[in-house]
Amino acid sequence: MNQLNNHKTKGLEFDAVVVGAGYGGLYAVHKLRNELGLNVRAYDNGSDVGGTWYWNRYPGALSDTESFVYRYSFDKELLQDGNWKHNYLTQPEILSYMSDVADRLDLRRSYQFNTKVTATYFNEEKNVWEVTTDKGETVTAKYLVTGLGLLSATNVPNFKGRETFKGEQYHTARWPKSGVDLKGKRVGVIGTGSTGVQVIIATAPEVEHLTVFQRTPQYSVPIGLKQQSDAEKAEIKANYEEIWKQVKSSAVAFGFEESTVSAVEVSKGEQERVFEEAWNIGGGFRFMFGTFNDIAINPEANEAAANFIRKKIQEIVKDPETARKLMPTGLYAKRPLCDNGYYNTFNQDNVSLVDVKENPIVEITPKGVRTTDGEYELDVLIYATGFNAVDGNYTKIDMRGRGGVTMRDKWADGPTGYLGMTNTDFPNLFMILGPNGPFTNLPPSIETQVEWISDTVKYMIEKGISTIEPTIEAENNWVETCRTIADMTLFPKAESWIFGANIPGKKNAVYFYMGGLGNYRKALEEAGYKGFVLDSAMANVE
Questions:
Q1: Which of 183, 214, 293, 463 has the highest Cβ tally under 10 A?
Q2: Reduced to 3 states, what is the DSSP secondary structure of residue 177?
Q3: Which fold does the domain 14-153+388-535 belong to in CATH?
Q4: Which residue positions in the chain have pLDDT lower than 50?
Q5: Per DSSP, what are the bridge partners of residue 535?
Q6: Burial of 216 (0-12, 13-18, 19+ CB in 10 A)
Q7: What is the residue extent of each domain of the chain?
Q8: Pairwise CA distance, residues 141 & 502, whole Å
Q9: Is residue 282 a contact partner of residue 275, using CB atoms and an 8 Å limit?
Q10: Residue 211 is inside which H or E element, if any?
């Protein structure tokens, strides 16, 4: 039994409240309750575990991280028992995996499902969090751990006349559990990001007609979806120790070796060979980071990669006008996309493309969508318009820290925070995948952060520490570090949700630590608790 098992915080209903039942929330409940023996209450507004994968049930939903590393690494038995059909996991498979984890670790008993946290208030007199739900319940806890997810605060553009549409309307991240029958219907999809691309590919074969309203043409490479044999899976399982060591010391944590070769230092022929090989293997992050080491930082290398993808679009898409509309012209510097036949889809007779940069959407009408070049009649309208990423879920909750400061006000000019998990004025608040955490395959980053949070809580209990929060200096330095690293790349130069550009009125800010998971783990180790104020007295931190 753990030495902390008898620890209980006097006078409080819970030692810790965990918000969210995705990868982060589930692991936090396990670490705090099963390992530290704390009294934990967890909430999620879904009816079961899954987090973003509970809500994103849209047709074609698929992870673009390979199956063998889109999972937890902390439990060796769980790794050995793991099973998957293909080299990428579908949404139902991910949900099934998370459900299995919840069963094995008995996590559901700590959860109150179908419950939304509406407000969190830090009581300075008692140094505790008061957490209020939409059920009208308020509970108290010493530690507040939020696993709200990077991509879960949905973004529906406020098109004029949206409420007048007589057909069916859906956002991909709030897809009905029962599914939607699209057979033989005229369907419109707005948005061609990662989700839009998947929806378009999955729905095109069954609808009468699919109209794609494209806001920005995308660079996308094949995903390379294929079945994995038992022998391949056995080999992976035999090498898991080495695999996870590599993942946790790498940059993007996708399970492949990142390139150390510069694209500009090799011949055009060699560039072509390497790109072709990556195109045939598949994977968006592999194409951007596994081919050459300077695609994300050197304009010349970036243009070589972009040009290769453009040539592929030209080869694949038969109609020259459609190919022109699909052709991206800017930097290849958004979150890299991959697909299972996106450009080919536009060769189908029942698929048409509308460029809404050239012909903007004027309004949604009772019959469909009107752009400046006419009206498109539809039975179903699908919004694949993404999320108010990273901080969106935090600013939706009424979160108040010291002196009543709200997270909304504190982050008005862009989210702040230290080490991607903590914030000044918000003591004992630990954010899993909070602002300025690593830009990577997420499960290994989530594990890294939850383990740090759990170690910190354990340290606080053992040392009798009442509150922990970063100094303003540490916070500013971290945000500056993240900005400096981001500015060394080409990513800030492209309009992307990575910097908040998809939300009207949202300030362009840095949202990620782009130095890679290996460097992030080192930064955590080197920081220790140097950038924090640790208060052992039941009084305010000065």
A1: 214
A2: coil
A3: FAD/NAD(P)-binding domain (3.50.50)
A4: 1-3, 5-9, 151-152, 387-392, 496-503, 506-507, 538-542
A5: 467
A6: middle
A7: 14-153+388-535, 189-383
A8: 35
A9: no
A10: strand 209-214
